[in-house]
Amino acid sequence: MSGALREKLQAIQPELAKAYGRPRWQAKRASGLEELVSCILSQSTTDLNRDRAYDNLRARFPTWQEVVDAPAAAVIEAVRSAGLANQKGPRIQALLRHVHQERGEYDIEFLGDLPLEEAREWLLSLVGVGPKTAAIVLCFSFNRAALPVDTHVHRVALRLGLIPAKTSADRAHGLLEELVDAADHYAFHLQLIRHGREVCSARSPQCTVCTLREHCDYLAALEA
Ligand code: SF4
C-alpha cells in the first residue's frame, strides 16, 4: 500500500472524528447468531424494516428451534416487513438448520476463538452470507478486525480515492482492512456511514460544506 494513501487516511481520520466522534465498540445484539439473522434480514431494506422483521420473528418464535420447526409460510409472514420475505424466511431456516447440524446447538460464539480468517471463511461458507455480512458479524458481535463495506462506506471510500476506481464493494473489504488500523475498523465503518448519509449522499454530495474536500479525488476531478 502506498505511503500517499496512508497519509491521506491519516489526514481524513481526524476530520471524521471531529465531525462524528469516535464511536466505541458495543455489540448490537446479544449473540453472534442474532446478529447473523439480523444481517440476513437487512439485505436490501432499511434498518427500521429490518428491526421490525427481526422483532416480529423473535416474538412469533421465541427460540431458534421454533423458527426451524415452523412452516416456511409462517416464517415468511413473520419477516415480511423486511422485504424479499420469500427468500429471507427460508434462508434463515436453512442457516439455523446448518448451524445446528454442524455445531449441535444454535450458537456461533466459537467464532470469537477462531483465527480471524478461519472465522470469516466459516461465515462465508453459509448460503446467503457474503463479505459484508461476514464482516458485520465479526466486527459487531466479536470486535474482530473486520471492516464492513456497505453502500455508504463503498461510495465514500471510492470518492475519496481510498480504494481504486471501480473497486467492487466485496473487494473493498480486503483493501480497507489493510489500509485502516484494526483498532479503527469499527469507528471508521460508522463514521463513513454517517458521512455518506449526512454529507456525501449518492445523488447530491454536499461538497461545498464537506470537511474532507481537500482530500477528495472526486471533487478534485470535478474542479480540474
Ligand atoms: S468532497 Fe464531496 S464527494 Fe468528496 S467526500 Fe466530500 S461530499 Fe463526498
CATH superfamily of the largest domain: Hypothetical protein, domain 2
Percent strand equals: under 5%
What is the CATH fold-level name of the largest domain?
Endonuclease III, domain 1
> Which CATH first-tier class of the largest domain would you pick?
Mainly Alpha
Order of helices and strands, N to C? Answer: HHHHHHHHHHHH
Helix-and-strand structural type: mainly alpha
Indicate the radius of gyration in whole angstroms.
19 Å
CATH architecture of the largest domain: Orthogonal Bundle
Largest sheet geometry: none
Question: What ions, cofactors and ligands are bound?
Answer: iron/sulfur cluster
The helix count comes to: 12
Low-confidence stretches: none
- How many domain regions? 2
Shape verdict: elongated
Q: Termini distance?
A: 26 Å
How many DSSP E strands? 0
What does the average pLDDT come to? Answer: 96
Helical residue percent band: 55-70%
Protein described:
The chain has 224 residues and is mostly helical. The chain folds into 2 domains: 3-24 and 147-223, Endonuclease Iii, domain 2, CATH 1.10.1670.10; 32-142, Endonuclease III, domain 1. The protein contains 12 helices and no strands. The chain has helices spanning 3-20, 32-42, 47-60, 64-69, 72-78, 85-103, 116-124, 131-142, 151-160, 169-179, 185-198, 217-223. The radius of gyration is 19 Å and the shape is elongated. The two termini are 26 Å apart. Iron/sulfur cluster is lined by residues 156, 159-160, 199-200, 205-207, 210, 212-213, 216, 218-219.
